[in-house]
Design a protein that fits this description.
The complex is a heterodimer of chains A (179) and B (485).
Chain A: H1 2-7, E1 9-16, H2 19-31, E2 36-39, H3 47-51, H4 58-84, H5 101-123, E3 147-152, H6 159-167, E4 173-178
Antiparallel strand pairs in A: 1-3, 1-4, 2-3
Helix pairs in contact in A: 4-5
Chain B: H1 31-43, H2 48-75, H3 90-101, H4 103-114, H5 124-145, H6 171-207, H7 212-221, H8 229-262, H9 274-300, H10 309-340, H11 343-354, H12 358-370, H13 378-381, H14 384-411, H15 426-449, H16 455-484
Helix pairs in contact in B: 1-6, 1-16, 2-15, 3-5, 3-9, 3-14, 4-5, 4-8, 4-9, 5-6, 5-9, 5-15, 6-7, 6-8, 8-9, 9-10, 9-14, 10-11, 11-12, 12-14
Classes of the chains: A alpha+beta (179), B mainly alpha (485).
């Protein structure tokens, strides 16, 4: 039965009333070797460390976006003012870099901001309008006042072990999530 | 699917927190009740009739604004009072005024976030909306002001068939990039902040049933946000980075707007104090507008527990501080004019004092410098109707400042034979009041369809204030024990 189940099981979901309960639960589940997801109504301090986010690449992507924006803006101005459309105004230099700074600055910020937002969404796999968890009736409380732990049915998932562990935790309720 | 509610065999040592009575959040609020309170404002619209009246009234103003715009496009800028020598009239003054108002939102969201000011939490969302609308309206005015507004896209650099490029050495081109970047980054910042709240609205619309359309609309906008811990980690990083990026941006935007003036050699424009003076003025008028919006918002939506007297008093203190920065700008302009020995600068200054626009100058000083000094008194900072009146006067004063900067320098510059006067026509006033109606209309739409206070951050604030209260309680409990030892 368990093999038939785990073939179409997304995971086991447990609901908690407080962030601290969830933090404890996440630490215990990870110590037991489970693949864990946690769902909270706000960003809980200490959760990224507890859940073990491998590497947060948002800053790197933002930096690259900023460099791309700034370099692109400066190149655009240099190319159009010096190469493509040079205007000789009283012999003033074509490559007048100080007046290229404002636009370069603005587009650096714009590139970095766009990269930060779209990079964050991309790395989070969003938008994703359908998800197995949205089928769970109580899960809409994850955006209100409840904290959820999902033990994924993958890797070294042992259903009995997982249920035993959840039984020892102060959950409000538990359920299974169909894949 | 779900096993029925189980008796938890192991009782949790933790209880869901409720907020203690602090000066930024009143007592007794929990995760659930802050979520429901703010979400119900949107989903169930308890202030329906009053909102509708305000909405329809402002809609009339918006329609007048659009009609006036159509007439402007038919007849040209001649319907305004602008002419040579004063070719920049209300339109440019309104532009600078609106973009200045648009500064406080990002300042509150970004700078106060980086400075870890907790009182920002309940006012940042609507201040950001204010920023977005004000900056958008500001962006309309330079386009309306163009003689041939349908060519405004010539500012955009693209390889066109005319084989020309924008003039990169012109502050007007810088302005285009500054304003559009500011609009886009403000929009991103606002939207990223909204994503978890949109998910809350989506889920609340499901819970209360009977809102299928709202569920789909908010569901699409929430992008399928489900609050996963790794998502939150990247989200928080991105939000913090956006705050870090928006901080220099907010300073750069009004700096570049001021360069529109300062790069020209017109007396009164050609001054190095302009960038910091403009930025200070922008924060000043922006915080005034925050107060103008916050006071009715909390009154009509009954948000006294979230937007407390402390929030208003803090905003008032910023208003007082920035009024002194603005005064420094005025003083520095006067000092530089006389110290420079430039007779045109000196004449411009004296002309502001006793010339044809002098009443406006003295009224501006009264509104921007004299009136804010009342805020030294604690009793004034905590008297809401007085704060509201002061904020309106500051808005008025800052508009007069923008008008004076634009007009007083242009109307009498170097050559007395080409001096002239600017008299606003009825169309000038229509555009000013029409833009205010548009602003109010957009803001009403915002408070009706989106949460005016960040639900997510309020939940976090509940946790933080509750934690602080327990910490200080345990400290107090330990204190007498130590003394006894």
């Amino acid at each position: 039965m368990s093999s038939w189940h785990s073939a179409r099981l997304y995971g086991l979901l447990a609901e908690f009333a407080t962030a601290d309960d969830l933090l404890d639960a996440v630490r215990r589940a990870r110590a037991s070797g489970f693949v864990v997801e946690a769902y909270t109504p706000f960003a809980v301090d200490g959760m990224p460390e507890a859940i073990g986010l491998p590497r947060n690449r948002v800053p790197l992507v933002t930096l690259l976006g900023g460099i791309l924006g700034g370099a692109g803006a400066y190149f655009l101005q240099w190319y159009s003012a010096v190469v493509d459309y040079p205007l000789n105004i009283g012999g003033r230099p074509l490559h007048s870099w100080p007046s290229f700074i404002p636009v370069t600055f603005e587009l650096t910020i714009l590139g970095a901001a766009l990269a930060a937002v779209f990079g964050m969404l991309f790395m989070n796999g969003l938008p994703q309008l359908r998800h197995p968890l949205f089928e769970v009736p109580d899960f809409d409380l994850a955006s209100r006042n409840r904290f959820f732990l999902c033990i994924r049915a993958c890797g070294a998932f042992d259903r009995d072990k997982a249920e035993n562990m959840l039984r020892e935790l102060p959950t409000i309720r538990q359920c299974e999530v169909a894949a | 699917m779900s096993t029925p509610e189980q008796d938890a065999p192991h009782r949790s040592p933790h209880r869901p927190p409720t907020s203690p009575d602090t000066d930024i959040l009143r007592a007794g609020w929990s995760y659930a009740s802050v979520s429901d309170k703010i979400a119900d404002q949107v989903l169930n619209n308890p202030s329906g009739r009053l909102w509708m009246v305000a909405f329809l009234l402002s809609l009339v103003g918006v329609l007048v604004f659009f009609a006036a715009t159509a007439w402007l496009f038919v007849k040209g800028v001649g319907i305004w009072g602008v002419n040579i020598p004063v070719a920049w009239g209300f339109a440019i003054g309104n532009f600078v005024w609106w973009i200045g108002i648009g500064h406080a939102g990002t300042f509150i969201s970004a700078v106060l976030l980086l400075l870890r000011q907790k009182w920002r939490t309940s006012i940042n969302r609507f201040a950001e909306a204010m920023t977005l609308f004000a900056a958008g309206i500001a962006g309309i005015f330079p386009v309306l002001h163009l003689g041939r507004p349908w060519f405004f896209y010539w500012l955009v650099p693209y390889p066109d068939v005319m084989n020309v490029w924008p003039q990169w050495r012109s502050p007007l081109v810088w302005d285009f990039f500054a304003i559009s970047t500011y609009l886009l980054v403000s929009l991103l910042f606002w939207y990223v902040g909204l994503i978890p709240d949109l998910a809350t609205l989506r889920d609340r619309a499901v819970m209360s049933r009977g809102h299928p359309f709202k569920q789909y609309a908010y569901g699409l906008l929430a992008l399928g946000w489900r609050g996963e811990a790794r998502h939150w980690a990247r989200y928080e990083t991105a939000y913090l980075l956006l705050a870090g990026l928006a901080t220099p941006l907010v300073v750069s935007v009004h700096t570049i707007v001021s360069l529109d003036f300062a790069i020209g050699n017109t007396p009164g424009y050609h001054s190095t104090i302009f960038p910091p003076y403009f930025v200070a003025g922008a924060l000043f008028s922006g915080f005034a507008m925050v107060l103008t919006l916050a006071i009715p918002l909390r009154h009509f939506f009954k948000l006294h527990d979230f937007i407390t007297d402390r929030h208003l008093a803090n905003a008032a203190k910023v208003l007082l501080a920035t009024s002194w920065l603005v005064l420094y700008g005025y003083a520095s302009e006067i000092f530089t004019a006389f110290y420079s020995g430039d007779e045109f600068e000196q004449y411009m200054t004296i002309n502001r004092w006793i010339g044809p626009y002098a009443p406006l100058y003295w009224a501006m000083l009264a509104c921007n410098v004299l009136v804010p000094q009342l805020l030294w008194w604690r009793s004034v900072r905590h008297r809401v109707w007085l704060l509201f009146a002061i904020s309106l006067l500051v808005n008025l004063g800052m508009w007069m400042e923008r008008f004076l900067i634009v007009v007083s320098s242009l109307h009498r510059d170097f050559l007395p034979s080409s001096w002239g006067m600017f008299y606003p026509t009825v169309w000038d006033w229509t555009f000013l009041f029409g833009s205010i109606a548009l602003f109010i209309w957009l803001f009403l739409l915002f408070v009706r369809f989106l949460p005016a206070i960040s639900i997510t951050e309020m939940r976090k604030l509940v946790r933080e204030t509750a934690q602080e209260a327990t910490e200080s309680a345990t400290e107090k409990a330990q204190q007498p024990a130590k003394e006894g030892a």
